[in-house]
Design brief:
With 229 residues, this protein is of the alpha+beta class. It is built from three helices and twelve strands. The chain has a single domain, classed as outer membrane lipoprotein receptor (LolB), chain A. Helices cover 20% and strands 41% of the residues. The strands form two sheets. Strands 4-3-1-12-10-9-8-7-6-5 form a ten-stranded antiparallel beta sheet, covered by helices on one side. The protein has a two-stranded antiparallel ribbon with strand order 2-11. The radius of gyration is 20 Å and the shape is globular.
């Protein structure tokens, strides 16, 4: 009986070790896929969905350069990048050296089977506390993520892919955030819905808001001047 228990414990240890190896291999494959991209620029339509803010669909231009430079401009050249939000990108997260990777099971995201991967930066000064990625193992694509930060709250991103899935770049992204954590940069004003009372606006601040980006005209690995950022 004792021998059977020992054998069972050893088998469980081997299975756990193999699972740990497997999840690290998966993350490395996703990292390699995304690391094909040294830089990109892309045009996008941005739809703001916050209950007490009236904002039209805007045209924006986004620039990215390894490892973590990201800038977003609205028409007329005004930056509207939310503080700490979409600037936290998968390139910088996946290329963090001091990182604990945890296999958290499987689930379905928008009809796709995904592996749940939790990433915990071990650097105590990291802005990110934990990031949870939902990875399509077959396509090596991040379909969804949930991130908790030290300074800028928590947010989620859903990605929808098409023409540039070979680079791990989405055609559409939905960014969901806590309204109370959403801070517009200086120089940007949005029209507040005058039909709402102060109490109603305060109530809505405890709800979630969304930014929906629809991308087009990607230009990949053609070089971007540093002065853009």
């Amino acid at each position: 009986m004792t021998k059977k228990i020992i054998v069972f414990v050893l088998l469980c240890s081997v299975v756990n070790y193999l699972q740990a190896q497997d999840i690290n291999v998966l993350v490395e494959k996703v990292r390699q896929k995304m690391n094909q991209v040294n830089d990109y620029s892309v045009e996008a339509k941005m739809k703001t969905n916050v209950a007490f803010i009236k904002a039209p669909i805007g045209k924006v231009k986004i620039y990215f350069k390894k490892p973590d430079q990201l800038k977003l401009f609205r028409e007329k050249g005004i930056s509207i990048l939310p503080k700490g939000g979409v600037s936290v990108n998968f390139f910088s997260i996946l290329n963090t050296n001091n990182l604990s990777i945890i296999d958290a099971g499987n689930t379905i995201v928008n009809g796709s089977n995904t592996r749940i991967v939790k990433l915990l930066p071990l650097n105590e000064n990291s802005e990110i506390i934990i990031a949870t990625l939902y990875i399509d193992e077959k396509e090596l694509l991040i379909k969804k993520s949930s991130t908790t930060t030290r300074e800028n709250g928590s947010f989620e991103m859903e990605m929808f892919y098409g023409s540039f899935n070979n680079y791990g770049l989405p055609d559409k992204m939905i960014f969901t955030f806590n309204v109370k954590d959403y801070k517009m940069p200086k120089g940007i004003t949005l029209d507040i819905d005058d039909d709402l009372s102060k109490e109603e606006k305060k109530k809505y601040q405890n709800k979630k808001g969304k930014l929906e980006f629809t991308y087009s005209n990607y230009i990949i690995n053609k070089g971007i001047p540093n002065n853009i950022f």
